[in-house]
Design goal:
The protein has 297 residues and is an alpha+beta fold. The protein has a single domain, classed as Metallo-beta-lactamase, Chain A (4-Layer Sandwich). It is 20% helix and 30% strand. The chain has 8 helices and 16 strands. Strands 1, 2, 3, 4, 5, 6, 9 and 10 form an 8-stranded mixed beta sheet that branches. A hairpin with a 7-residue loop joins strand 7 and strand 8. The protein starts with 6 loop residues before the first strand and ends in a 5-residue tail after the last strand. Bound molecules: zinc ion.
Length: 297
């Protein structure tokens, strides 16, 4: 774990982005209809045409110590080695714990976990196997309130044939059994966490729950898989995984409008180079003006 994690201030929160692991997913699937001659530039692509993606957890610690929030938890530790090979899944064991320690917090101090959605590369780190027998599960952060949108939860329990490979119930079912899940309801949900608002997104998967951290001059919007990496900033560079690609496109246009109107900064879940960015928007062209939350290796 790097000890030169970059932190940034957003309102009353100190924010950092931790690389909790790595995966490789098919480059073609990651860029939908965009041909490889366009996307290969700048990607780390292997012999099987898979590109390197980070899985990131955003840590938000409130100044008064009342809240320590994790946004997404990465692939987690439950992958059997044979299955892990398919997606080159690599879990950086202890990454969240080390990052919390570097910020002077114990893992027990985590108060809230936001599960943007329940795909395995975002929700896998919420549970772990208790022992080598790999049967009994435990919550990794048993004291935390886990926030998930109710409609997404319902979808995750009965996904379509097209997206069911992305959900493992052992990542999340225990949350309900242990009473540690807090469902977010409705289409315009209020967020009771101080200094945080909810945004919703439906193109990638229904009812993604995206936290926005308030700041007087420049709030921070966690994009989830609406914009997985900086390479996905062009509105039409939509993943083939998305259930409703045209929705994703329109949601990105709306996000960029909001970036312009509210001077938003954004944070990515999968970019291997940066945890976030300040964007430059010039007509239809959207690019990174300034990388944020860059991990010094
Ligand atoms: Zn996803």
């Amino acid at each position: 774990m790097s000890h030169t994690m970059q932190t940034m201030r957003v309102g009353r929160y100190k924010i950092t982005s931790v690389v909790t692991g790595w995966t490789r997913l098919d480059g073609g699937a990651m860029f939908g209809v965009v041909p490889k001659v366009l996307w290969e530039k700048g990607e780390d692509c292997d012999d099987s045409n898979r590109i390197l993606l980070a899985t990131r957890t955003l840590i938000a610690a409130r100044d008064d110590g009342s809240r320590i929030i994790l946004v997404d938890t990465g692939v987690g530790s439950k992958w059997p080695p044979e299955d892990a090979k398919r997606y080159a899944v690599e879990n950086r064991k202890g990454a969240i714990r080390h990052a919390l320690a570097a910020l002077d917090h114990a893992p027990e101090a985590v108060t809230d976990i936001v599960a943007t959605h329940l795909h395995f590369d975002h929700a896998g780190g919420m549970t772990r196997f208790k022992d080598e027998a790999r049967t009994d599960l435990a919550l990794v952060f048993p004291g935390a309130t886990h926030w998930v949108h109710r409609r997404h939860w319902d979808h995750a329990l009965s996904p379509t044939l097209r997206d069911r490979a992305s959900f493992f119930s052992h990542d999340f079912q225990l949350l309900e059994e242990s009473g540690r899940v807090q469902f977010v309801e409705g289409d315009d949900p209020a967020c009771p966490i101080p200094g945080v608002e909810w945004a919703l997104s439906h193109g990638h998967t229904p009812y993604q729950l995206l936290p926005v951290f308030d700041d007087e001059t420049s709030p921070l919007f966690f994009t989830g898989d609406l914009v997985p990496t900086a390479s996905h900033l062009p509105p039409a560079w939509v993943m083939a995984y998305d259930l409703y690609p045209l929705k994703t496109l329109n949601e990105r246009l709306a996000l960029y409008e909001r970036v312009r109107a509210q001077n938003l900064r954004i944070a990515f879940p999968h970019d291997r180079r940066m945890g976030g960015a300040r964007l430059a928007i010039d007509g239809k062209r959207v690019s990174v003006e300034e990388p944020l939350l860059v991990d010094g290796a």
